[in-house]
Amino acid sequence: MHISKPRSILLAGAVAVTLSATALPAAFAAPSSTAVISEVYGGGGNSGATLTRDFVELANAGSAAYDLSGFSVQYLPGTPSAGSLWQVSALTGSVAPGGRYLVAQAAGTGGTVALPTPDATGTVAMAAASGTVALVSGTTPLTCKTAADCAADTRIVDLVGYGSAVVREGSGPAAGASATASVARGTSLADTDNNAADLTAGAPTPVNAAGETSGGTSPGDPGNPTEPGTVRVHDIQGTTRVSPLNGQSVTGVPGIVTGVRTSGSRGFWIQDATPDADPRTSEGVFVFTGSTAPSVAVGDSVLVSGKVDEYYPSTTTQSITEITAPRVTVLSSGNALPAPVVLDAASVPNTYAPSASGGSVDALALDPTTYALDLYESLEGTRVQIADARVTGATTAYDEVWVTVKPNENPTQRGGTLYSSYTDQNTGRIKVMSLDTTRPFPVANVGDELSGTTTGVMDYASFGGYNLQATELGTLTDHHLKREVTRKQKDKELAVATYNVENLDANDEQAKFDTLAAGVAVNLSSPDIVSLEEIQDDNGAVNDGTVGSEATLKRFTDAIVKAGGPKYAWRYIAPENNKDGGEPGGNIRNVFLYNPERVDFVDRAGGDATTPVTVVKTKNSVTLSASPGRIAPASDAWADSRKPLVGEFRFHGKTVFVIGNHFASKGGDQPLHGRYQEPKRSSETKRVKQAAEVNTFVKSLLTADKSARVITLGDLNDFAFSPTMDALTDGKVLKPLITTLPVGEQYSYVYEGNSQTLDHILTSPGVLRFDYDVVHINAEFADQASDHDPQIVRVDVNAQN
């Protein structure tokens, strides 16, 4: 399969070289009869230039194909300084006997004519008037700065110095290069190792391996045609996720421009106004223009020539079918756009994706009437429309919002869409973005509505999968979602909460401290104990060995007092530097805040970053060997991950053991919308091990005292229906409280439009009477202090059977 180049490479320029399969010359002092640099042009995109990019052309004067694998083209300024470095452009593929090979280099802001489709692309901005280009066996940068030193480097196959270049072959550099002139060898490709004699100046004439030239003067390339070719968009898209024409050149593909993207991944979409009868074949496609802003407008009727490419945003995502290195002819403007396809509850299937037993679905024939992902793929690049869509994921900092076209699909009590099973995906979710950068993007919370119609082009991205690139946005209807405030605990109730405060450190802005503090003092009604996740060390991501969090916690607890809460004390165990994962240098850890006016912390010496806490059976009770302590910190389950913090508390004369957790993240899991179905959850293995360690510790407590009151809580980074939860609750030693809520309330986190639960509170059988609440103050809101909602449980410690 043809694999696309990374975006960073596709945004670069072009170079062409002539190569052969014979052995390399000992140095460029021995003329090459095979591989040569046939043309060099550094004026692309300059003022007065016609071509938009620099390029280097290679040629093969030999009789056999020349393999370029592992080769590079390298550039050095004409008058190198001590700090000048050779800039490297890697090559792939080969050059046919007598053929050409084109390497595009950096584009400028001038020029109107694109290069023919390059065979390789670099990022080098070559000088128009003077410079040196070398064809090198290998990709390690050259170090030579003089002609003599470079002549001694046996990796150099050929070298061209132009203008006033110090590094050149022979008596002098090739002369005459400028914004409008390249330097090129004659048709014989003769190489006498004298740049001044071998290359002459003239109008640039780039040729690629296919024999194509800018402007279409070479055989088989009509350039910018005025009549459509034989290929249509639906031929390019085909009936699977990968184009049957992937890697091939196409000419004169007709379409109407339906959307233009002028930032980021620049380009435009075209759609065929005369579709075929196959619902599997999309009629739209993205035309990728790289660093060059599109020169077309919505409504233009165009013919596009270029190369078909499947661009994978990442290794696990599906691909985007594109036409790259385009040459565009505008036939007319102001044309009516094709009617959009309406997406609604009736048109979107109820099954999310086909199964490939964990393999790639790329080769499977699309079935858009059965699978939602297949429907969206069959509409890739096509105009679509949604109406009166409920917001299921708040507006992000990147101006994107998640909506659902299925208003009755797993609704939560506050307007979201619940994610409740690996096998029951929400098919109506879609991300909405805007191509209109001239108007503000709506700031929406979960439960709001994008009223009226929203119309745009179906696209795909690594985050979130299929998305609607809107050309017309609906109107935001604000449903005035309110942040929840939980009730105050009664005097006899011990209130214990968990809150992920999202990498809080002493260098954060005061506004973040104040908002988080209000969440504790007001929305959580000042719990007696708060188990915090993601408290960083005092200088945050500065990686200087600092591991303490005293300044961070003082700022936070002072802000809680200012917000009307109690003066909390705290306990934690500082991690070993850079041993607990998270942001490098941040040293995140679990922390207990507690209100000493209502609850006592039982301090027992001996707890540190590496010593495991154990259960101590006494004559009348059970205690911890250290408080605070850490569970099995040497276990490989906690390698590069946060270790659970265990504390012993006393409330109304009763002992309560609290275990604060922050399990390993879901990083590395395959996406729900990706090419591999069903997705692999590789990160789950570590969390299951972590859950088993906590479960073993809880069992040791209950073995010593079956009525021990244990509260296990924190960010477990997994769902109530996950194997992680099965391992944590094994033997029914812990009860997950999230399952005691009404189904529409069972969430604490919103991701890609799914309301789901990553944070949990679990209790042992010794906790007989409780009142549990997820307090929704963050996850559903565009303005959030953390991406997690806190939770709280109020326990009657004196309750009896």
Descriptive report:
The chain has nine helices and 42 strands. α6 (510-523) crosses α7 (550-562). By secondary structure, it is mainly β. Mean pLDDT is 92; it is low at 1-27 and 216-223. The radius of gyration is 32 Å and the shape is globular. Strands 1, 2, 3, 8, 9, 12 and 13 form a seven-stranded mixed β-sheet that branches. Strands 30, 33, 34, 35, 36, 37 and 40 form a seven-stranded mixed β-sheet that branches.
Quickly describe the structure.
The chain has 801 residues and is mainly β. It contains 9 helices and 42 strands.
CA radius of gyration is 32 Å
> Mean pLDDT across all residues, rounded?
92
Shape: globular
* Count of separate DSSP helical elements: 9
Give short descriptive properties of this protein.
mainly beta, globular, 801 residues, 7-stranded mixed beta sheet, 10% helix, single chain, 9 helices
Secondary structure layout plus pairing:
Blueprint: H1 7-10, E1 15-18, E2 35-41, E3 53-60, E4 66-67, E5 71-77, E6 87-90, E7 94-95, E8 100-107, E9 120-121, E10 131-137, H2 147-151, E11 156-162, E12 182-185, H3 195-198, E13 199-202, H4 233-237, E14 249-261, E15 266-271, E16 284-290, E17 301-311, E18 320-332, E19 341-342, H5 372-378, E20 383-393, E21 401-404, E22 429-434, E23 449-461, E24 465-472, E25 475-477, E26 493-504, H6 510-523, E27 529-535, H7 550-562, E28 569-572, E29 589-594, E30 600-601, E31 615-617, E32 622-624, E33 629-630, E34 645-651, E35 654-662, H8 684-704, E36 709-715, H9 723-728, E37 735-736, E38 749-751, E39 754-756, E40 759-763, E41 770-774, E42 791-796
Parallel strand pairs: 1-3, 8-9, 16-18, 19-20, 22-24, 26-27, 35-36
Antiparallel strand pairs: 1-2, 2-3, 2-12, 3-8, 4-7, 5-6, 5-10, 10-11, 12-13, 14-15, 14-17, 15-16, 17-18, 20-21, 20-23, 21-22, 23-24, 23-25, 26-42, 27-29, 28-29, 30-34, 31-32, 33-34, 34-35, 36-40, 37-40, 38-39, 41-42
